[in-house]
Amino acid sequence: MANNEDDLIQLFTMVAMGLTKQVVDFNYQGMKIGRLIFIINYIGYKKECSMKDVIDYLNIKPSTATRQVDKLVDKLKLVERKESISDRRLVILQLTKLGNDIYLYHKKISEIPASAINERFSNEEKQILKKGLEELLKAFS
Q1: Most buried residue, 18, 51, 134, 139, by CB count within 10 Å?
Q2: Over the stretch 16-38, which tens digit does the pLDDT of each residue have?
Q3: Sign of the torsion angle spanned by Cα atoms 55, 61, 62, 68
Q4: What is the pLDDT at residue 15?
Q5: Domain range for residue 80?
Q6: Other CB atoms closer than 10 Å to residue 106's CB: what's the count?
Q7: 115-126 pLDDT, tens digit each
Q8: Domain count, the chain
Q9: What's the rounded Cα separation, in Å, for the pair 123 and 141?
Q10: Which neighbouring-strand residues pair with 81?
Q11: What mean pLDDT do residues 64-80 have?
Q12: Looking at residue 54, what DSSP letter applies?
């Protein structure tokens, strides 16, 4: 019989697999978005940001960020680049209308599991879960 630690590892693995599948398979009206949703979500959350912000937040190489943002700008038309008003050397990223629609759609479907937790967990349980998730994030850093 498995011990509690083994059960926890198995549960974490199943959650990670489910989340990975949800991200890899993510599409919007037939448009395959996949992992690009991470950049869309960040820009949507911030409203506007720089490439450096994306690189730092997602902890990815500049070349990877550039390739992915280029795809979002040029091919998918979900992000636009604009010159900063305060510093013309700085390029600002913003979502297009379609990019914002995708951000809001993904945000809405992401709220479903969060609302289930909110309805079923006590405040104390939510604090424990929050602390556990924060510790997981630290472990990945």
Answers
A1: 51
A2: 898 899 899 999 999 999 999 99
A3: negative
A4: 86
A5: 4-140
A6: 19
A7: 888 899 999 999
A8: 1
A9: 27
A10: 93
A11: 97
A12: H
